[in-house]
Amino acid sequence: MQPVTAVADDTDPIVVRDPHYGEVLFYFYQNDYFPAIVRLLAAQEQSQLSEHTEQAELLLGGMYLSYGHHLAAADIFERLLADKVSPEIRDRTWFFLAKIWKQRGYLDKSQEALTNLSDTLPDNLWREAQMLQAQIYIDSAQYDRAIALLQAWEGKTEWASYAKFNLGVALVRSGQVDAASGILDELGSIDPFNEELTSLRDRANLALGYSLLQDGQPLAAKRPLQRVRLNGPFSNKALLGVGWADAEVENFSRALVPWMELRGRDLLDPAVQESMLAIPYALGKLDSISQAADHYLNAIEAFYEESNRIDRTIGFIESGEVFNQFLSDDPMDSTGWYWRLEELPQGPEARYLYHLLATDEFQEGLKNYRDLNYLNNNLENWQQNVDVYANMLETRIEAYAERLPRVEDALARADLDGMVDRKLELDSLLNEIERSNDWLALANESEVEMWSEISEIGSAPALAADIPEAAEVRDKIGLLKGVLQWQLESDFNDRLWRLRRNVGQTGEALVDTQRLRRQIDDTMRTEPLRFEELSNRVYGLEPRIDGMQLRVSNAMADQREFLQSIAVGELQAQKQRLDIYTVQARFALAAIYDVATTEAEASP
Amino acid sequence: MDADSAAPSAYDSDADSREKFRSLDENVQNLKKEVLDLNRDLFLLEEELLFPANSQVAFFISMDVGEYFELDSVNLKIDGKEVSNYLYTEREVGALVRGGVHRVHMANLKTGDHELIAVFTGGGPHTRDYRRGATLMFKKGIGAKYLELEITDRVKKQQPEFVIKEWE
After folding, report:
1. Beta-carbon neighbour count of residue A559 at 10 Å?
2. Which of A182, A240, A267, B40 is deepest in the core (most CB within 10 A)?
3. Is the pTM of this model over 0.80?
4. Which residue of chain B has the CA closest to A557?
5. What pLDDT was estimated at residue A153?
6. Given this structure, which CATH class describes domain B56-167?
7. Which domains occur in chain A, in start order?
8. How far apart are the CA of A207 and the nearest CA of chain B, in angstroms?
């Protein structure tokens, strides 16, 4: 189970009511926590998640946790968990916080998180939480508390076996060896059904065997040590112990059997190194002095070569190159809390660092190193982008400055107010025409022309004559005028309506144009401010990126140095052990030569 | 279950080393926070710079159920011009099926009427290749506009359906 699912329960389908929330989920469901978090933060900043406010906050906490940003996650949970989420979610969240904090060595915080748990965790998580609690007690030397907790352990799952082992460890550390023996013996005799339990059984037998050896019970120690698998991570130490159990009872020839078996194994293992001294020691006890001397010489030679190899490896590690091999092939591949380095890169140094992988400190340190590298690459990308944005912005500012005079000129020429006045004049003119029923005012050009022509003909002096021809023309003219007037009068309403409609449309267009004009005015007023604001942001972000890059690269150097110090410390401890063994071998060899010389001198 | 986490390691660090690790880790935590905040600011700046709010249009792809359609790609045309041809990975389709929404394209458009044509390609019912288009005339106003192209199941016909939703 992943921490984020503790808070973002995906069994219920999510109804997305803000597309931006859905976008966050798109990245989240692909485990791309970094871009998901960035989008969520951006959407929150722009108030785009109004439909998912609390959900988003909880999801953010879960994603922070999965991304390994545990302190920020805790901030959110401490705010939200009090009363806004169900006890089940609250407990699961505290559980994952406790686990991540324990891994990262924040024992006080891990303890706090465990204290916050109520009783709603599912069984498997509850047991794991109890085990975390016991480990915290053991790590902080509160053995009595650890013992009380572990002794009260109920159930028969695999966790019960781990509880027993830790109980044994707590009892041994608190000096109760006898009580521990019974527990470890019981655990060392289980019939394991998987690799983990087999490994746990080996560890219990090894711990019991060595505690009995130290307690002066070599015969009793043999049984648990012989229960350890012959090939496994604890077999070398067990074989060495079996040899010492025999040697303690002066059975050196039997002791040689497991020690000789160790001779062909990896010299890096301290048990194998020790066996190279134990073998000649036993041979010496069996009076095979010359063989013993040969073995001591071999051991000195082997230790010397190994010590040289360690020196070269230390040099390589101190060069810092080795840690770049731990970085992902994909520079923008984010790490997150789940990442673990499973395999060391190929190289002569790998075998020396192999068991460092088992330690939380090294693994968590590597995670941080990889995370920092991701941040560094992320900042580098932004640095390039921001340069582009700065150029783009400059170009826009220049283009705006170039266009502005042309726009201003065009705006000055467009007499919008005059057009509005003309529209208003037209309105009142039409009102007047309607009021006075001035049908002739709405006549078109040809009609006006025709009306004028008819009127002109009608007023000709010749037509005033009192003759029948003139009277006939006058009648015709009167008829023509009457027809034209009748047409104009009957079309009057229709024409007036059309004109009013056209003037109305013109008015609407004028209103739109005025709105546009206001927008242009607004833009002309705000655009320089917007440019200034954007410029400030672009140019303000550049130094922020630079500063951040510097801090990230310093943090990478610190982290690398820390990892180096762990790795080099480990190697130096190995080298120191080899040096001590070499001195012991030389002393033993010198003693053999002394005895041989004394014997040679004593013989006639 | 992790054996190493269940039992104290032989390489348990001492208190000094733990303290050192914690101090480095706290520094990394702070840096993560600051870089995330910086990324948020840069993300917003990038969006404002490239797609100012008054011309911004964002196109999202989402899926509701998706039993009758297995998405391969989406092709978008705005006003007759191809603007995006996005090929989906299996991981991305998985994220869509679970409720994720993908911002497939951002554009700057003038206010007024526009036409969107989306063509979805993928596997249809009975594993047949499927290609379907959806068209929408939309009006771009002054503010930012979001269009969601949703793939849903039409259960009665056992066919996928492609719906375009407008968000303001």
Report:
1. 25
2. A240
3. no
4. B24
5. 87
6. mainly beta
7. 1-85 (no CATH), 385-574 (1.10.287)
8. 12
